[in-house]
Amino acid sequence: MSEKPSHKIQLYSNEFYSACTLGGIVACGPTHSSVAPLDLVKCRLQVNPTLYKSNVDGWKSIIRTEGFKKIFTGLGATFIGYSLQGAGKYGGYEFFKHFYTNSVVNPDLAKRHLTSVYLCASATAEFFADIMLCPFEAIKVRQQTTIPPFCNNVFQGLSKVYSLEGLAGFYKGIVPLWCRQIPYTMCKFTSFEEIVQAIYRRIPTPKEQLSSLSQISVSFLGGYLAGILCAVVSHPADVMVSKINSEKKEGESMIQSSKRIYKAIGFGGLWNGLLVRIVMVGTLTSFQWLIYDSFKVKVGLPTTG
């Protein structure tokens, strides 16, 4: 960590954005994949709250009835989908943060309203990132919420969805995905920026004089606190994504489907699995910032915040 790369990457150059995009892939693909067993139980409980008594009961039941390998159902779609999403989200955020600060509004005005810049940049980046994620999210949810699983692997899932529903089948959940992911990412990036800045203000030593390890530790703490907020903000939409992908009827519009599902589960049903998601998202978010900022330091870039 202490070794400095011989080649210095110029900020906001094509090489800078490429490095941030690669950092997003490294941060998101493996971390989301690591919690696939937890995500499996969460998604099934969102669709059927009476299916398992707890996470442990869910894993025991899956291993007993379906085999040990089945607790990793949806792993392939998760890894590919969230690697693509991470590329668009992190690389896009760095691009749009600089773009909005310098090209759309007066730079001096933008610096006085950085929170608005963070919100706009993260929302724009996530909008495009979700277009890449959506087909794989649709396959993942179908695999995880159907017993036996909808398909055995991501490639079989791609073929099956396309043969049954065409391209539209991959994007029938795009609106609820945007409703879940855009507020989540706006909260994730903006709260992270604000939290780490608040931490640095309370540390007597300026950030530039802190070691890389100290800065990355701040990123980890800020990421976990931001993750808790993200989980709460995005959870109702997360439930709806799972329900719509598994229960949307043919010919039914998104609004009709959402109304029917909400009538069936009620307001309380939108919060099924929240505690699990807080643990999962808090852990995910903290490790993503840890990995992303560690990667940036490794290639000679400053940490975020």
Query: How far do the termini sit from each other?
Result: 19 Å
As a percent range, the share of helical residues equals over 70%
Q: What CATH architecture label applies?
A: Alpha/alpha barrel
Name of the CATH first level: Mainly Alpha
Strand content: under 5%
CATH topology value: Mitochondrial carrier fold
**How many separate helices?**
11
**Helix/strand structural class:** mainly alpha
Please mark out the parts with pLDDT under 50 across 5 or more consecutive residues, or reply none. none
Order of helices and strands: HHHHHHHHHHH
Average predicted confidence as pLDDT: 88
Q: Write down how many β-strands occur, each being a DSSP E stretch of 2 or more residues.
A: 0
Computed CA radius of gyration, to the nearest angstrom? 20 Å
Shape type? globular
- The figure for the number of domains is 1
Keywords: Membrane, Mitochondrion, Mitochondrion inner membrane, Repeat, Transmembrane, Transmembrane helix, Transport
Family: Belongs to the mitochondrial carrier (TC 2.A.29) family.
Pfam family, one: Mito_carr
GO molecular function: phosphate transmembrane transporter activity
Describe the structure in your own words.
The chain has about 300 residues and is an all-alpha fold. The protein has a single domain, classed as Mitochondrial carrier fold (Alpha/alpha barrel), CATH 1.50.40. Helix content is about 75%, strand content about 0%. Helix 1 (about 15-35) runs antiparallel to helix 4, helix 4 runs antiparallel to helix 6 and helix 6 (about 115-145) packs across helix 8. It is globular. The mean pLDDT is about 90. Pfam families: Mito_carr.
